[in-house]
């Protein structure tokens, strides 16, 4: 597969998703350059995450039992990926003066999640082909955006309300949700229709948090 098609089903959908969510910040949209930086930071996070997860690849693809799979999907996949996406925002843009309302945490975190998904999708498309890339461009991108956005809501509230403990509430929540989602898929316990149903449910939850954050904006 040539470079054009690789980018067409990985980078382009990721950026379109970023634009879609970016427009939901109606009252004081964030600087585009910071949103793109968040996207790039998220993409770069794939590298250390891949290195950490690599030793567990066989346990994920061929687990000896369901208990092991459950522990690995939550304790490795959920923990490592969501912590990485959280960290690239918490220790960079979080400290910016532009991060001045709750919805900012959502938008920046979604951008990081979509950057992560874009590079991950590019690698999967290269290995498994165009069809897999197309499915992941929709489903995987949206699920990463949802998990990161949920975390971002709590990250924004933690900063604006000066309640650092909310960070751990959000992070723990998405680690478990991500782990359970992957466990159900890898174990084969759910059909494709139920997978799509879960993706839609997470998206609806995310939108409810976005609406709540937007309505609480001091710039309204």
From TrEMBL:
One of its GO terms (molecular function) is peptidase activity. GO terms for cellular component: plasma membrane. Signal peptide: none annotated. It is a multi-pass membrane protein. Its main location: membrane. InterPro entries: Peptidase_PrsW_arch/bac, PrsW. GO terms for biological process: proteolysis. It comes from the Bacteria. It is found in: Cell membrane. Keywords: Cell membrane, Hydrolase, Membrane, Protease, Transmembrane, Transmembrane helix. The chain crosses the membrane at residues 6-22, 34-54, 66-84, 105-127, 133-154, 166-187, 193-214. Belongs to the protease PrsW family. This is Protease PrsW. It comes from Orenia metallireducens.
